[in-house]
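pinging the channel bc i need a second pair of eyes. not urgent but kinda urgent?? the chain im working w is below, pasted from the shared doc
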Amino acid sequence: MGRFDGRVALVTGSARGIGFGTASRFAEEGASVAILDLDEAAATEAAGRLPGQSIGIGCDVADADSVATAVARVVEALGGLHILVNNAGVTRDNLLFKMTEDDWDTVMSVHLRGAFLMSRVAQQHFVAQKYGKIVNTSSTSALGNRGQANYSAAKMGLQGFTRTLAIELGPLGVNVNAVAPGFIATDMTDATATRLGLDVEEFRRLSAEHNPVRRVGGPEDIAAAVTFLCSDEASYITGQTLYVDGGSTLV
């Protein structure tokens, strides 16, 4: 038996990267999984690579109607909803004097508005059944990172959002936590290397040198943390942000 037998997990932004790694771990441990992504074709293709019952759905997490429709489709297709992972994210990096209003608004809309809209709809189901798990994806960038005023603000905002939802929803059977990844080897960080004019492998090596465990993380590292926080083993943990960064925030 898996830890998530009989559970339905919904992971946003999960057609690839950390999101797909997390969706895969849920599926491997027995959950029925909904992959949500802006691109429905990519979501459907990713869902087809998971074991067990899964569905891929196109969704703009910053649009209330799109979110409501997507969650309704998940519940109808998979028979319920027990776990929400707010993982969808984008970057629009730039120094403050170069950052446009669109750069700021886009990042805030996807990360903060998206987590708000998804959680608001999901909690209706969670409260009715007196059971639910929400995990929000923050970042070590929440502590400040040059060229990421928008991203850093959004990721720290998610930590405040997490703590507040934990207070509000805890008495109703819902645990709310966050994970804050450090450097994770994904297409997104590879794109950062390209933008900086660095070889991808060299970029990863340099990043590994800046944490105590001397390696970069992979999506599976974040998936392990998320699935633990969504398990019944973690039922006494809520309102917390777990930094999964190889110890980089220590140095």
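so The chain has a mean pLDDT of 96. and The first strand starts at residue 8 and ends at 12. — does that match what u expected or am i reading it wrong
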